[in-house]
From TrEMBL:
Alphabetized SUPFAM superfamilies for the sequence: Bet v1-like (SSF55961)
Boundaries of every Coenzyme Q-binding protein COQ10 START domain copy: 14-126
Biological source species: Thermithiobacillus plumbiphilus
Tree of life domain: Bacteria
Listed transmembrane segments: none
Record-stated family: Belongs to the ribosome association toxin RatA family.
Stored InterPro entries: COQ10_START (IPR005031), START-like_dom_sf (IPR023393)
Pfam families per the UniProt record, alphabetical: Polyketide_cyc (PF03364)
The name this protein goes by in its record: SRPBCC family protein
Amino acid sequence: MAHYDFLTIWRTLAPLEAVWDAIHATHQWPEWWKGVESAQPLKPPGQDELGGIIRYRWKGRLPYTIEFDAETTRIELLNLIEACVDGDVRGVGVWEFLRDGNITEIRYSWQVDTTRLWMNLISPVASPLIRWNHDLIMRWGAEGLSEHLGAEVRMKTG
């Protein structure tokens, strides 16, 4: 398996609560986030909002799609959303929400291993392209969130 660690940071003047609502409602991402082809709920969350499963299908500029199921494993209201994923990639994604004066900062950490044979075979040479594709999809997310919230969203990657 090939391993990837991604960190994306979005910063906006939009209120934390509005940003939280947009990110938390993942089934609505296809409405505003280019690259999210589908976000299909498979299992509703429990009363604690944990255990819900959504199947995502993503497509960037490269000629492949990624599909995986994400199960919500941790939520701290207005602070953190964590999900374990399994499918074409396996690992953990964590959204963190922070206030910095008037600025809302959103940090997305994505630590995954690829499970598709072809991705593992080409990883030594394709890793920079896969990283570029991921960053592009996250840029599309920042642009979509900006339009969705009516506030500029700036992005940096790490």
